[in-house]
Records
---
Amino acid sequence: MATPGIQRISKEQQLFPYQDLNPSLHSTVFLAPGVKIIGDVQIGKYSSVWYNSVIRGDVHYIKIGDHTNIQDCSMLHVTNSKFPINIGSKVTVAHSVKLHGCTLKDLSFIGIGAILLDGSVVEENAMVAAGAVVPPGFVVPSGKLAAGVPAKIIRDLTKSEIADIGVNAKRYTEYSRITVESLSEINLNEKDKLTF
């Protein structure tokens, strides 16, 4: 059932069906140990999902683009037949983020521990601050920073902050490569070693 060639360090079960729906991951996707991906989930080229994250596409779909990173202990879920999750390319979802039925466009950044609720949208080159709670239907416009509980637009992003969103995505693609090389040396026979 696993998509052939996925970059996995662990031999644990990580991909699970939901009824007749199975995850579909590009062969260059990196999955860290502890990751669980369920149901109608698509993940694009060179994206990564880090330790103990859960992506549950059971009652609606989840699509994740290329060069996107879902960091440690994040949780992604959907609302039955109403709100899927759409995540673009070169997106960073930082540690312990909760995404529920939302849309993150290309080159967006979600800070540590943020929560995004049904129907919320983060546009391209926009950022959600650590710990923010983005309410249902809220839109974070391009070039803006949203913060607070509930989240509000607090200021424009600087040119440097916008540029760093793409740099961060590239950095995580490299972290994936280094992690595969580092961890494949541990407790694996030569024939089982992974390449990136």
---
Amino acid sequence: MHELSKAFKLIWCFAKWARIESQLSKKLSQFSSLKRSDIDHMTTTFEKKIKILREKFFLSSSQVNVNDIAESFISLTVSFNSRITEDKVKQTIKWVKADKASSTSDISNRALQVNLAELISILTSLFNACVTHKYHSKQFKKTQTIILCKLKKSDYIDSKTYRLIALLDIMSKALKSIMIKRLSDIVETHHMLSNAQMKARCKQFMILTLNLLIN
């Protein structure tokens, strides 16, 4: 009876929403007032909020002096098969989460996974063409940057409580993942990285890192 009563309440709530809420015009989302720091006054106008966020996330770049960095060159010729196989494309597409947010193309990974049997040869040919001609499609370079609230903050008046996230094209993600794995395998196989290099490497354990620091 309890489960039946709970189901009846859900149906009643849905019927009420369909009768009232669904007929109303969609409300525009409201962005809270912002300030740069505790001493700044509150900003309420849309233009000033945009200015604060622009200054927060898009800082002016400064010229970096790299003259003190010693040049290095590895005289090593590596031969490998650059062709991307259908199995590798299929594995990569299935590895990415189905409903992961995509960029401006609005092509979701779920759509690629559902229609993978029909698209696999097209995607493989496209990726191989990019590698062969050393060309990255303009569509792959497009990103959509959105602002998200940081979780568990007491208030969202301070601009520091927000962060950026860049949404990339889902096919660009697949190609990037394939190339990163391939390059990683090449540099590891031919010992092209220092043993002290830890970041973005597989099988570099915490114990090894601690031994390098101690010794």
